[in-house]
Design goal:
Blueprint (H helix, E strand, L loop, with lengths): L1 H45 L1 E5 L2 E5 L4 H21 L5 H12 L4 H12 L2 H7 L3 E12 L5 E12 L4 E14 L10 E16 L2
Antiparallel strand pairs: 1-2, 3-4, 4-5, 5-6
Amino acid sequence: MFTQLKNIDTAFNHIKRFSIFLILACMLISGFAIYKGFDLAGRAQAKVYILANGKALEAFASERKDNIGVEIRDHVKMFHHYFFTLDPDEKVIQTNISSALNLADESAKRAYDNLKEKGYFNNLISANISQEITIDSTRVDLNQYPYYFRCYATQRLIRATSTVRRKLLTSGYLRNVSRSDNNPHGFLIQRWETLDNFDEPIKP
């Protein structure tokens, strides 16, 4: 009888230890699962996705100083695109010039007024000329502020019977301003000027 009780007591202790081990194992597994769940949720919330051309692209946050050269070059590119990409349509010209003037100071406005006074835009419309621009390269000096840049570009003036290629070299400075829908990079071009601009006729 005592042997039977001893066996029962031993079995009870085994079951007790096994139960404690099982409970601890479950607690560890549950704790690890909760930790991983919060970690994955935190990572998911830290990610930002941008929808571009029907595709979801992941965006990564970074300090502005890490990408300031890229942002400056894109700002300069967009300014020149709006200022020099024109079609023989007054509304298109006004829309593009207005977008360009949001990215620069009165130096760009003076350049626009000078071209308008010389009848440049009226000539585009009357002669049905389309103007396109390709940015070849943009050099930026990040060691000074405001940031100095030089932009090397190629213009194409497309007529019904011919196409003219025109080399363009401009320069200016950029200072920081608040970002907005009209100025997403948060820069303003100032003291903008054309250093060189000459035609290179090409066959249509």
